[in-house]
Amino acid sequence: MQLTMIGTGYVGLVSGVCFSDFGHDVACVDKLPEKINAMQHGEVPIYEPGLDDMMVKNIANGRLQFTLDLAKAVGAAEAVFIAVGTPTRRGDGHADLTYVYDAARDIARALKGYTVVVTKSTVPVGTNREVERVIHAENPDADFDVCSNPEFLREGAAIEDFMRPDRVVVGIENDRAKDVMARIYRPLALREAPIVYTDLESAEMIKYAANAFLATKITFINEIANLCEKVGADIKSVSKGMGMDNRIGNKFLHAGPGYGGSCFPKDTKALERIGQDHASPIKIIETVIAINDERKRQMADKIMYLCDDKVKGKRIAVLGVTFKPNTDDMRESPSLTIVPALVGAGAVVHVVDPQGRKEGEELLPAVTWDDDPYEAASGADAIVVLTEWNEFRALDLMRLARVMKTPKMADLRNIYDPVEAKEAGFDYVSVGR
Q: What pLDDT score does 146 carry?
């Protein structure tokens, strides 16, 4: 099939590359010439394991192209995907739909023949109806249907999630559009991946409800971790015992410094606003947002406490600043609260992150970037584990302690055993233990 992807950010690029790997002919459209030129030459603008090889392969076999020519790409397509950003709007917490509606107008002017316009961006309930209205207003003669097809891609595991999804959600209005979407996703149907066909509003709500629930799960276990510290329980044992209950499951029950990234913060805020606008406030989500913001500040206080509440002039090594491992994404990362708090208190912060430096140098301008954990820890008064990259999971703790001025560790991801850390000479604190 001929497919067009509007937007080459995380969702658009991963989706476009994976669709081409299904065997579809995919044109990915963006407005930035330098970005398009780089991708045409196989350069991936984001870090996602395995994406570069898959992209180069499908460019070489002619199934994947990158272009500035939206009109040509849309005119040739059987389905056009809107995969542009929907960031939180400043001031009111709503999802900013400017890019979505701009894309809809551009698509409307370029449509030729029957086309399914598919919204893959995360959008509030009612957005697809508005996309339909915008296209009709711009091109009253257009022959098209609108479909909602939210993505559920985890950064760092996006290709696996796309190729072997828990489910594919498709919001449609009629059988004509359903047939097009069924043909697009036929490779997954052959693998018996569940495909949920529903109405537009339900598809839009599924995305927000799913992300909000996962954010709630993270926040819940972090609150339990706080209580564990007070009563002497071990959050890792508590999480394991809870997760073995099939009704609960073991995913997203790892205590830490709070959630971040491109989805959970944005989507919980948007859902909060949707509820308020419809006089049906979701008080659980309002509380989750407040607790998660406070959680990040609590983690900065935990580090301060480890350093006797005096970090001025002290060297602190920070391991990991991306919001999770296997990504270069810094959006809403706990590090963006914790590291500036340390710098503001006068600490000399040295950072190591396998992929975070590109974005981090601008977002964390007052730190020193090192290439190696032992280099960052050399002469340090404390070391902080902020992101659980594999590179940080098996450090030589005795060597680490030897190179430090004072061996203190704040393990905010609980990747080390407290007894082993103390035996290596560390004054050690973790989360919920």
A: 98
